[in-house]
Automatic annotation (TrEMBL):
GO terms for molecular function: RNA binding; structural constituent of ribosome. Keywords: Ribonucleoprotein, Ribosomal protein. The keyword Cell membrane does not apply. One of its GO terms (biological process) is translation. It comes from the Eukaryota. Belongs to the bacterial ribosomal protein bL21 family. It holds the Pfam family Ribosomal_L21p. One of its GO terms (cellular component) is mitochondrial large ribosomal subunit. This is Large ribosomal subunit protein bL21m. It comes from Diversispora eburnea.
């Protein structure tokens, strides 16, 4: 009995896609329609943004408090620049990213206010028909951010 390996019908796909390194964005490379749209948005009084922090989406405006899951590499008082913006807008105009809005259009900063722990959570793990019960308790750590700046940059 001579066993041979069957032929592969499909090519193996990589588990991740490699992304090309991002190039610096030159403000003169935008079309006039894009510049007009961003400048119209800039003329509005108040802005909002939909940002992604640790795979969670938040709708933010200036001076908002955002409570996220713990950010490990930050300390209280650090200022963060949020760069994963999905949507940027005001009452009359909106710019939606595909999937993200270009960083040349906006400037969003947040300050770390505190890193508190949540309430004590008790989880009961049980196995059927074995009289086995286990109580597991833990406190989730959060990071509180104050949005200090939401601005739309002027494109010329």
């Amino acid at each position: 009995m001579n066993k041979t390996k069957p032929e592969l019908r499909y090519k193996a796909q990589p588990l991740y896609r490699s992304l090309a390194p991002s190039l610096p964005i030159i403000p003169n490379s935008f079309s006039t329609e894009t510049k007009e749209a961003v400048n119209r948005l800039r003329d509005q009084m108040r802005y909002y943004a939909v940002v992604e922090i640790r795979s969670q989406r938040f709708l933010i405006t200036k001076n908002d408090l955002v409570i996220t899951h713990r950010l490990r590499d930050v300390n209280v008082g650090d200022e963060l620049r949020l760069n994963r913006v999905l949507e940027l807008g005001s009452k009359d105009f909106t710019i939606k990213g595909q999937p993200l809005v270009l960083e040349a259009f906006y400037n969003i900063k947040a300050t770390v206010i505190e890193q508190p722990k949540g309430p004590l959570i008790t989880i009961i793990k049980k196995k059927r028909r074995n009289r086995h019960k286990k109580h597991v308790t833990h406190k989730q750590t959060y990071t509180v951010l104050r949005i200090s700046e939401v601005e739309v940059n002027k494109l010329e």
